[in-house]
């Protein structure tokens, strides 16, 4: 079973780790909906929201460009230039005409950029401006150990998007537990987010942590609940309406299941 999946015996009410600050509302104004609705009236707010989204998507787009056959150096320049243009030019207005998933808008825009803009951009070599920080050396090191696959550039982009999203969720979850003074407990329980839930090492964890087996089961249940909440929260920022969240979650796990 993948991280974030739930079973029928789990309730839907939010449960936070002890000491965590209260959760967010069921659905708030998302980054993507801000980009779509504020572009004409509040450009600064729209660009700030767009920049936050871009921070999450640079690695999937970099991986997409690499899979298209560009060298690491060219892929870095391409991705940096693409985001510079996205943030500095009037692409927010274009986004308003292409309502849909943020990743779809990005991938379509990048494909257009590669086909029509890159050679011109290389000749002009931009300077300064608003950019997204890219850690391409780390990206290369990370992709180097990934197994060889037959994914298309588009499928690779989607898989990298999913893995980046899950990494963000794990980072937020780890930070929450650390702030609550439960960082060690989190590290002990983290493996329980993965695998078959009927074969979890509850007894061994009880011995290791000095907790009862029943307490371990409750702690794992809370960890899973909070993981799912944070996953929904991250996904919510990339869609336009709350109705799209569950559909996007199903799609996320379908992407992970591809071989």
What does this structure look like?
The protein is an all-alpha fold and 259 residues long. The protein folds into 2 domains: 28-146, no CATH class; 149-259, no CATH class. Helix content is 64%, strand content 0%. The protein contains 12 helices and no strands. The longest helix is centred in the middle third of the chain and has 27 residues, at 153-179. It is elongated. It starts with 30 loop residues before the first helix and ends with a helix. Residues 1-28 have low confidence and may be disordered.
Please specify the SSE layout and strand pairing.
Elements: H1 31-38, H2 43-67, H3 72-88, H4 91-97, H5 102-116, H6 118-124, H7 136-144, H8 153-179, H9 183-189, H10 202-209, H11 213-236, H12 244-256
Helix pairs in contact: 1-2, 2-3, 2-8, 8-9, 8-11, 8-12, 10-11, 11-12
Keyword list:
single chain; 259 residues; mainly alpha; 2 domains; 12 helices
């Amino acid at each position: 079973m993948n991280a974030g999946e739930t079973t029928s015996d789990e309730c839907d009410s939010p449960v936070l780790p002890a000491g965590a600050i209260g959760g967010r509302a069921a659905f708030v104004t998302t980054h993507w909906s801000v980009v779509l609705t504020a572009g004409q009236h509040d450009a600064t707010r729209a660009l700030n929201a767009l920049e936050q989204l871009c921070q999450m998507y640079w690695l999937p787009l970099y991986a997409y460009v690499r899979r298209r056959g560009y060298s690491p150096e060219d892929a870095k320049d391409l991705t940096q230039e693409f985001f510079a243009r996205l943030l500095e030019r009037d692409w927010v207005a274009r986004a308003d005409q292409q309502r849909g998933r943020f990743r779809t808008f990005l991938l379509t825009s990048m494909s257009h950029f590669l086909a029509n803009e890159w050679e011109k951009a290389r000749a002009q070599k931009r300077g300064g401006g608003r950019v997204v920080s890219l850690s391409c050396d780390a990206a290369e090191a990370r992709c180097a150990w990934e197994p060889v696959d037959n994914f298309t550039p588009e499928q690779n982009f989607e898989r990298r998007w999913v893995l980046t999203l899950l990494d963000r969720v794990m980072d937020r979850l780890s930070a929450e537990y650390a702030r609550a003074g439960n960082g060690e407990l989190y590290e002990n329980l983290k493996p329980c987010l993965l695998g078959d839930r009927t074969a979890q090492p509850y007894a061994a964890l009880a011995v290791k942590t000095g907790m009862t087996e029943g307490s371990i089961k409750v702690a794992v249940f809370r960890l899973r609940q909070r993981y799912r909440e944070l996953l929904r929260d991250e996904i919510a920022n990339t869609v336009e309406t709350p109705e799209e969240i569950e559909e996007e979650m199903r799609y996320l796990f379908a992407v992970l299941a591809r071989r």
